[in-house]
Each structure stands twice: as C-alpha cells, then as structure tokens.
Amino acid sequence: MRPSRLIPIATLALLMGTVACQKPAPAPTGPSQAELDAAKKAADEEAARKAAAEEAARKAAAEAAAKKAAEEAAAKKAAEEAAAAAFQAAANKALVNIHFDFDKSDIKEGDRALLQGIADFMKAYPQAKVEIQGHCDERGTNEYNLALGNRRAAAALSYLKTLGVDEARFTTISFGKEKPLCTEAKEACWSQNRRDEFHLK
Is the full-model pTM beyond 0.90? Predict the structure, then answer.
C-alpha cells in the first residue's frame, strides 16, 4: 500500500471509535406525578378561591339589595304615615260642627265659612268621604226630631254641593235627639245639641 491511502482509513477508524464511545442521549420524559399533583392542587385552590370570591360578591350584592329595599320600604312607610297624619290633621281642623236655631234647618250665616272649610278640605283630599249627622235638642217627639235631623243634614249637603263638592262623597243620617252633647234642660245646652256633625267614613 501507498502511504497516502492509509491516512483516510486511520481517520475513519478514529471517528468510528469516537462515535462508538459516545453515550446515547436520554429519552425526553414528561412531568412527574408529584408535579402533576401539585399542579392539580394549585388549580383546585385557584378555582376554590374564585368560587369563594364570587360567592362573597353575590352575598354582598344580595345584602346591599336587601338593605336598599328595606330603606325604600321604610321611606315609603314614613311617607304614607306622614300623609295619613296630614290628612287626619286637616280633617280634624275642617270637620267641625255647625248649629241651628230652634226647630230650624236653615244654614246660619256664620256657619257658611265653616262649610266652606269643609268643601276646601274635600277638594284638597279627593279620597275623603264624609258622613253628615243631623242632631236635635231633647224637645219634641222622637219621630219629629229624626225628621228634623234629616232636614239639617240635607241642608248641609245641599250647601256643600253649591260649593262644588260631589254629593256622592257624602252620606247623611239623623240621630234626632238620641245623642245630645249636653243634657241640662236649658237653652245653653239645647243650642249645642241642635247641630250637624261631619265624620270621615
């Protein structure tokens, strides 16, 4: 052999020996079971945290809504109570007795202003309905006084109609001499009993 051909063969032999001595690269492996367990635990904890946060937010929203509803209900109740108190105060001020002369059912001049006050009240409070009660003093028979009481109640109703109040909002009744305010047999007492009273229905 010629020396020039020996060199490549020697080089080749050296390369083959080197390759034969190298260890194979380890095969790739996936995450270990411990790592998988840790990842699952972290995911579960995150999910639990989010669920707890959502539940807390839902509970807070529900509590806020309940508080708002309670406040609104309390405000509504307070407004209704204030309106009812104002209505009752206006009724107490307006619904005062008017009086009549003996054996008469004519509206006295001085009582027209009182009836105007009743009409104004009825116009201010369209929901108001009133019973007009006619009364008499003790003189006369029961039958006569019941009829006179009816005339007195009707006279007040008729006058209120002229002031623009719908008569459908009134009812009338006579008690005759059955319900005196004063029981002494003298004019100062009888004059109190000859009256119309006005009561909310």
Answer: no
